[in-house]
Amino acid sequence: VADAGGIALQAGDGNIGGDVSIHSGASTASTGGSVVLEGGKGGVGGSINLSTGDSADDSGKLDVTSADISVETGKSASGSSVSIVSGNSRNLGNNIRISGGSSELGTGGSIFVTSGQSQASVGGSILIQSQMTAIAPSGGSIQMLSRAAHFRTGSARNVGHLSASVGESLNSAG
């Protein structure tokens, strides 16, 4: 079987680049139409890439707005990853912000970070790490600001442990 043909949608270049818009239909009585983007199935599944353009000043903006958003990888024998990465910058690093929603009358939204479980082996880990730098004597800090903070290990056949430690000081501060 020969390679399948492709489809390309591309707007024109100019002083201001052209837009590409894809809209589904509105409904006056029921559910609005959907837009489905799906990579092809195969020995290695097809990819979907969403990216904004690079710029000498500011990169483009990617907005995803919905009542519910789910980002999942497809099933894979060797495991898959979801990465959320902000682009590099010459002067200041870009930020990633994860915020629970506010509520006018009820409880505000929560943020859950959960590692994966395993039926036959060890469950996944969660690592929160600030990076060191090659030229400054310290790395970024990790701050937890809360009315109350609780740390607890889960129940398991081999019970986990909870530890806290500080690194070695490169000067007199500890």
Describe it for me?
It is a single chain. The chain has 174 residues and is low in regular secondary structure. It is 0% helix and 0% strand. The N and C termini lie far apart (66 Å). The relative contact order is 0.05. The model has no long low-confidence stretch (mean pLDDT 78).
Secondary-structure blueprint:
Layout: no helix or strand
Summarize the model shown.
By secondary structure, this protein is largely without helices or strands.
Keywords:
single chain; 174 residues; little secondary structure
Mean pLDDT: 78
Q: What overall form do the CA principal axes indicate?
A: extended
Low-confidence stretches: none
Q: Helicity level, as a percent range? A: under 10%
Total helix count? 0
Total strand segments: 0
Q: What is the percentage of strand-forming residues?
A: under 5%
> How much is the radius of gyration in Å?
23 Å
- Specify the structural class: little secondary structure
- Characterize the main sheet: none
Distance between the termini: 66 Å
